[in-house]
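input
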Amino acid sequence: MDINNEEQNEIEIDLRELFFHIKRYWYIVVVSILVGVLGAAFYLWKIEVPQYQATAMIYMRDSNTQISVSDLQVNQELSSDYMVILKSRPVLNRIISDLDVDMTYDQLYNSTTISTIDDTRIIKITVTNTNAQIAADLANQLVDRGVDTVEEIESKQPYTVEKAVVDNNKINTSNKKVLLMGMLLGLVASIGGLFIQFMLNDKVRSADDIEKLLGVPVLAGIGENKELAKSNGVLNRRFNTPHNRKLY
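output
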């Protein structure tokens, strides 16, 4: 008895019926996709703040023409020292004052990335900002001030390898990806809603539904003659007119 109850309580999904159910309400899917794309476009237009990056590099010149492995290790240690010096508070505050940018030390510190290129004595400085020109100016100024600061500390003077250039390509998620995400979100939401509607619909639509509901096979069915039903409908409308009702 328990087994029969469990079989009756099982939820079976007819994928063919689900497909035709979604096809029947195709306009809901289309409208949901359009809403998702418009929402993504609004995010790109009003909410997202574009971010830009600019990168400059400096080379730590060494007066020795012969460089041993131990010298290279020392230079790598010096690179770490330079990385700390370049992001020190006096250097960053001086850059903010020279360029007169509306930033704090913490903001400039967090938006600046300093790293070394493997097996080289080159330091790469990358600055991120909402303005591409300001990002390039900060990176170049950081190189210049960093070189001056290191020159005051060390007798060896690094020199600028590459100046940062303005890059107008933002590094945020591309517009196409955001719009595609909005479209997919609308598609998933619409199909999910239609799926829930399909699962909650307990109407009997076919012989299979009767078999599932009652647990007994359907032996026969009565077909519908559309032409006969149409003619009966015409006769019913004809004899239900006020004039005919008076005759009968």
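quick obs: Residues 1-10, 63-72, 243-248 have pLDDT under 50 and may be disordered.
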